[in-house]
Specification:
The chain has 22 helices and six strands. The chain is α+β, with helices and mostly antiparallel strands.
Length: 466
Amino acid sequence: MSLDPDRRAESLMMTRRLAEFAAGIDYAALPEAVRVRARMSVLDGLGVILGAVHFTRRTGDLRLENYLELAATPGPATAIGYGRRIAPLVAAFVNGTASEVLDFSDCILTARSHPGAAILPCALALVEGRRISGASFMAAMMAAYEAHTRVCHAIQPSQWFRGFQSTSAIGAALVGAHLLRLDAQGLADAMGAGGFVMPILNGDNVFRGHSVKPVLGGQAASAGLSAALLAASGYAAGPLEGEPPRFHGPLPVTCDFVDQQRAIDRLGTEWRCLEVAYKPYPIGLLITGAVEICIDWAQASKVRAEDIERVDVVTYKEAAHFVAKYTTPASSYVDCHLSMPYCVAIALLDGTIGLRQLEDERIRDDRVHDLARRVHVHTDAEMSKQYPHEWPVTVTVHFTNGETLSRHLDQVKGSPRRPPTWDEIVEKFMSMAEPVIGRDRANRAAEYVGELDRANDVAELLDLVR
């Protein structure tokens, strides 16, 4: 099943309405809360890319650099952190892939998506040589975030549970088309083309620890940019929701139901991109609440690993389904940062989770996995009803002396209901960026993004992070 028959009369409505809305977005008219998210997502996204460059160099992971050598041709766009100018399509791919290396990019759980991992790299691939102002750049970004989120709301969680990993190529296509100054029809064609060429990214390659996992950001970014350039070249594409009589558009063929009305309800008055969350740790978002609790306990010296008999994590169904897996000293860092038991164990042992906790030296420590095997994840029906708008979790440590320690969280750190401050985003950016571009450039980049609406040319920012 794809479209409800009663809604086929409006089958061309969703893509057209979203494109018309996006075409009319002006930075000056954006709500202040949306402007704040725009600056946060730009700085956070740049930091995550630079953090990936630092991490892969420290761990001797040359795969992305090898790809650059094999595939990159000279061009005007920047491979962030690598000191190279390359062709825009390859830059979108490289920066998008880097965005996903650490699983640290922004996300919208109601959309089951990491929008910034594709949208920002696509946008950055277009700015050099085009003199795009900061205000125009952020308007395009938030138009894409909003449209992307609403498209995902029309199809999720159906697409997610069928094993597809979102439709972020569509958001990337829209940001590219917006920066290329296409009209509403051009934006609709770009979105349709984005659906036509979007990669069929699958859950097994994400959640089973394969090293190709980060490519989901790169493929979506480069496919989106390709779609925008196709629309700018004059190619027309059908709507995402399909056309009569078969309705074989990109959305109906990848999910069970397309709820167009949900995508366009209160369009322009309710900003769903405000559901964006920013990760405080480089781990799967479904794990964040449990880790926050354990880090607080460890830092307050309330737990010692040798005194722990077991740890019970009670949470919503999706967390238990996707990240309750166990790891071993032979596991990859991808396996580890998507494992609730590993992340809870390392948080209790180290009192933090950063890049070092994903390096081989820490992963190969038997003590970490021994404690992780004492972590048990359970599903709670009432918590599952609150998800994805809330991410409830209860962690209980059972000590060998019979005592227990327990804490519950509904609104976890970095979530839409408990967002970070600008200073916290800057702190995260500096920790990722400084090892790659130095403290002075990192400070200047953070200051630049803080006043991005005044910038005459976003290309100046790339000079700082290249």
